[in-house]
Amino acid sequence: MTSVLQAHALGRRYGKRWALRECTIDIPAGHVVGLVGPNGAGKTTLLKLAGGQLQPTTGGIIVLGGSPGDTPAQLAKVGFVAQDTPVYAGLTVAEHLRLGARLNPRWDAAMARERIERLGLVPAQRAGKLSGGRRAQLALTLGLAKRPELLILDEPVASLDPLARREFLQGLAQAAVEHKLSVVLSSHLVSDLERVCDHVIVLADSRVQLAGEVDRLLAAHHRLTGPRRDLDRLPAGQHVVSATHTERQSTYVVRTDAPIHDPAWTVTRLSLEDLVLAYMDERTADSRRAVLEVRR
């Protein structure tokens, strides 16, 4: 499988604080990958490392077979839409397209014009007068018309209302299919990722907690509910992600490839949001460490 991004033991530190640590991931080509985690988890740092805007403190990262931002040709392969959907308030929509054509050697003017017309954006209107959703669509158009092989989006819909978010994500999904794009989309809104992403990476505490194909991850995780049971009484093949207990009942989220036959458990499937929250919860890390200590 061809990779668009590979990182090994990647880390970035600001002074004494690690924004990203021990990040090892392999992102396949041709997919829409959701990068999710709480604020401060390291999402933006990882994306800026991938875009060549930051240099690693430790480890290494390869994007599309090269070092991020190393050459003009490498820069041309990657599109980047930042969190504030950057556009110039004083420039018109048409002036943005002309600027994009001057700055990007692979610029697709016909596609940019067609998309602007389809969205109903007025070429003479200044970007500062557009709604948040329209500005986001303009920024996405600029990113797509660059004709990148990899499009990186850093929480582009965080400030949009639900309707504008839906329209933006529908346009992104359509463009990814039409232009055979690889996409990495960061968000803290799991419901948005469920609409468009087939792979997911969960960052928490500046580390990768989970990564893989959404369908496979969901198939491998289960919620077990039953009479209170301690960790050391669970089968060794069940990796415990999280655990909660009441006086009489235990609820575990486990990862296992083996069928669960114990009739004492009620087994239910997880949604993507359930799965992500289990790995993001601060108590999750404590539970996983406890499992390792019990089973050593």
What is the strand and helix layout of this fold?
Elements: E1 3-14, E2 17-28, E3 32-36, H1 43-51, E4 58-63, H2 72-76, E5 78-81, H3 93-103, H4 109-119, H5 132-145, E6 150-154, H6 162-178, E7 182-187, H7 190-196, E8 199-204, E9 207-213, H8 214-220, E10 221-227, E11 239-245, E12 249-255, E13 266-268, H9 272-280, H10 282-295
Parallel strand pairs: 3-7, 3-8, 5-6, 6-7
Antiparallel strand pairs: 1-2, 1-4, 8-9, 10-12, 10-13, 11-12
Organism: Sphaerisporangium flaviroseum
Keywords: ATP-binding, Nucleotide-binding, Transport
Protein name: ABC transporter ATP-binding protein
Would you write up a description of this structure?
This is ABC transporter ATP-binding protein. The chain contains ten helices and 13 strands. It has 296 residues and is an alpha/beta fold. It folds into two domains: 3-204, Rossmann fold; 216-295, no CATH class. The strands form three sheets. A six-stranded mixed sheet has the order 5-6-7-3-8-9, with helices on both faces. A four-stranded antiparallel sheet has the order 11-12-10-13. Strands 2-1-4 form a three-stranded antiparallel sheet, covered by helices on one side. The longest helix is centred in the middle third of the chain and has 17 residues, at 162-178. The protein starts with a strand and ends with a helix. The model is unreliable at 287-296 (pLDDT under 50).
